[in-house]
Amino acid sequence: MSTISTHVLDTARGLPARGIRITLQSSTADHKWEDLAMGSTNADGRIPDLLPKDSKLAAGIYRMRFDVSAYFSEHKTKSFYPYIEVVFELGADGHYHVPLLLSPYGYSTYRGSWNAHFFLARFFTGLAERRCSFLVACVSAR
Fold this sequence. Notes:
Layout: E1 2-10, E2 15-16, E3 21-27, E4 33-40, E5 60-67, H1 69-74, E6 83-90, E7 94-103, E8 106-109, H2 114-141
């Protein structure tokens, strides 16, 4: 049995995408989609409680539907995509992280790792802090 999480980042604005409605669905034996969970991204672009805490997903085909039309309308941005559907297959066990990197005319997704994502976010935050300190030191030296 597996767990799942997602994260939406607006690459055009350089910010997490707040307020995107996401629907998690599973493929049925007759090749239709069954809704499992729905939620909207928070200020960090995540849905911490998309599924109840101890929920596990069986191996199979799943889909996340990201309804991005309202998000772009709210930001007065024209977009090519009213929604984005990402279809993927879960294995028997493990954690699956499905991030969406979003812009008005394109998107990218990949199988992420929450732990790796957390590490990269901390790394780049630290890098930005070091760069800022370096720039302050250079300006102060003048």
